[in-house]
Design brief:
The chain is of the alpha+beta class. The protein is built from 18 helices and 22 strands. Strands 4, 5, 9, 10, 11 and 12 form a 6-stranded antiparallel beta sheet that branches. Strands 3-2-13 form a 3-stranded antiparallel beta sheet, with helices on one face.
Amino acid sequence: MEKIKKFQNWVDEAQWAAREWRSESWRDAEMYDGGRAQWTDEDWEAAADAGIEPITVNMTFPTINLILGSQAVNKFDIISKARSTKDSEISQVMTEGVKFIMDQSDGEFLISHAFRDAIIPGIGYLSPCLNPDPRKERLQIRRFDWKELWTDPFAPPWITPDNCRFAFIQRYMDLSTLQSMFPGKSQEIENTYDDMAGDSKEGGAMFEDEADFIEKSIRQESGSGWAQSERKRVRPIEMWYPINEKAAFALFADGRCVEMDDKIPISEQYQLITASQEVVVAMVKKMRVCSFFGDLELQDVPTPYPHDQFPLVPFVGYVDRYNFPYGVPRQIRGQDIEVNKRRSMALAMLLKRRVMVESDAVDGKDALQTVYEEANKLDGLVVVNPGALGQKKIQIVEKAELAQGQILLEQEAKTEIQQVSGANATRLGYETKAESGVAKKADIAQSNVITAPLFDNLRRSMKALGDQSVANIQGFWTKEKVLRITDRMTGAEKFVEVNKQIRTETGVIELKNNITQGKYDTIISEAPQTDTVREQNMNLIIEWVKKSPPEIIPHLMTMAFEMSNIPNKEQTLAKLKPILGVNPEDEDLTVEEMKQKTIKALEEQQAENAKQAQIADAATQLELENKRLENEKLKVEIEKIAGENVDAANKEKREEDKANLDAYLEGFKLVQGGKQ
């Protein structure tokens, strides 16, 4: 009982401290909802008494939606990185595992919803937790309403065991649901409910809060903060709190830190101690959860999760000097209210007239009232005594000129909303003075700078969400499992097997994609906060295509096509990939498998190139030999022809010499004969 009293004091402390900021956050949510909720009851009645029809111009709604839209079109990705090279391949599987949990839990929608809570009331919560329904995936992402959750008022909203003493959830549920959660205490729950239903808020009952407002507005029920009598709904407390405990840990070179607890068999502890760098004993924070209903303790057990963190990931907008969260409407609420009041005043001035009339201009007080009423009609008829108009005994003053001043001040308030929130006219698509593309980009850049803290906080929340999801995967995915992953960019599905048992050539059973081992860090992908980020990336890739070698172009073109918004792009892309030479089977390969395949392809290409070079060299040598033989043959033929030419010349010379000799002899004979 003493422990429950301590927890109840924590509850009172948290609710008292949070009443003011939660009330302001509730008002911020009303400003986003619009309608009469943007007016206080006092202002609404005062305007009506002054003859002014209250008008609501909801400037908060488009401002918030612009920021929410920026998050919706530029989502962050959770990526796991291994501490050691041997786990680099499995880190890709871990990343796919986180995406699998997101797919099964509709995680993208829940993240957007939590971000919406961060932007409007100032804080939202997601919880990477267990799903008790065996028909569904065991690990899930769950959202908690900010109205149902409180934390230590002396801690910042980024709750961690090091700086936060407690955090508790108090949500409405049916009495039968609570009994089914704790069947062993069903009768005690029933008795406690009977004692509390309809009682006053004494004896440990809760303060009235925003969740109570909703319950009462919907059902008009009565009862204490712990129970509702008509429908039998209750609000038990789920209190998460860390305690100090001494524990022993085995430390490894890859960053792993394994706790040596009783859950690990002695033989495995010995193996861990032998393989570790060192074993240390330290006092650490260990998380526990206690559930109670009024003064009835339902359970108090250690956390079922392996990370010893609060299983609650806060999504925070801004934080004030008291470490209380708040959203964007807080800074623009006054300007939005001013826009409503000045628009209502300007419209009243355009429709109303001031009538000044002397008492003898008409006969009787009733006639004076008739003059006033007729003067304020669009088609009014004012009848006065003869000569009254000429003597200016009646004057009707139009207030349209005064309305112009209200309109100018209203425009100033609208401009201030854009300046404070970052939702300037260019981002909202309004007509602006910025005509050039450079000027518009400057306006968008200024808007991004103003909203940057919101997305910086979102990145921090996403990292915490990834850290807890990775820890849960390693703690609960200990058996063989097949994951179906849907690619967010292309919509294509692929399957990944983890903890798959395979038999090696030596007969030893090993686990492929053993996701329970290793140490992984979570990083969040960077994305610029613009509405055209996909188009910008696609255009950048197209520019790469113009300067890339031919073998890379098909892959770049495929990537650019995946980033496009072309209808039925999956079917079209499936037909284009064979034409571009992209093998669809390569898409399911891991980074290491793709690396090995690329290396093998390069080696085969080098071998083929060497073979072709040898063939080309042999062909060249053969061609040179043929040329040499042809030259030799030509040389022989030339020599033969030359020899034949020499023989012919010699023969001709011999014949000529013979003829000359014969002629000489013939002449000599003639001379000799003459002497005789």
